[in-house]
């Protein structure tokens, strides 16, 4: 198996789906479980339900995220009518089959639940910017424009998240350690989150990614302070 490629995602070091994170035998077990539990809706070739498990639609929905996010959603929603009814090991085997079906390479070690958070989904050419419409979070300095709209400056790169709501105190503490970034993004509907009380502070903003040339913004779902002030 080729050596694991290591990339930096925030402060965590991650492997990627191109690093051989499952075995052929595990994918075979997953195929049998998929056929029995998932094939009726998603079809044996994974093209059912608008092809969400394979190809471009799979990549657009899951790239720049880790496999744990996919595992949790798969477990909490599938099989239809009986979510979370399979053992975790079976869900992981099905995940291995889905990776194989998307032509990600196999390796010498089996995929395990404990490793899912450290395995990133990305295109073969490497990480890309979060796609339009993706739910993301950034950490940066909250500031106001002359027209009274709001923006985040010195922001970190937008990172995918599956939680649109406020982060926990533990998560916010970890956000404090993120070094300042180079991004500047507009914040839609920031006034609804009482932005005026957080001006000049280091904040975490969550929301849906909107891209316009030279004027990217976030349609907010959450805005909260990390507890730190921004340096001038």
Describe the structure.
With 232 residues, the chain is of the alpha+beta class. 27% of the residues lie in helices and 26% in strands. The chain has 7 helices and 10 strands. Strands 5-6-8-10-9 form a 5-stranded mixed β-barrel. It has a 4-stranded mixed beta sheet with strand order 1-2-4-3. Strand 1 and strand 2 form a beta hairpin. It is elongated and about 60 Å long. The N terminus is likely disordered.
Number of strands: 10
Rounded to the nearest angstrom, the distance between the terminal CA atoms is: 49 Å
Outline: elongated
Give the low-pLDDT segments: 1-12
Q: For the CA atoms, what is the radius of gyration?
A: 20 Å
Strand order of the largest sheet: 5-6-8-10-9
| Portion of residues within helices | 25-40%
Task: Label the structural class.
Answer: alpha+beta
If helices are DSSP runs of H or I spanning 4 or more residues, what is the number of helices? 7
What's the oligomerization state? Answer: single chain
Write the element-wise H/E pattern from the N-terminal end onward: EEHHHHEHHEEEEHEEE
Mean pLDDT: 92
Beta-strand fraction estimate = 25-35%
Largest sheet: 5 strands, mixed, barrel
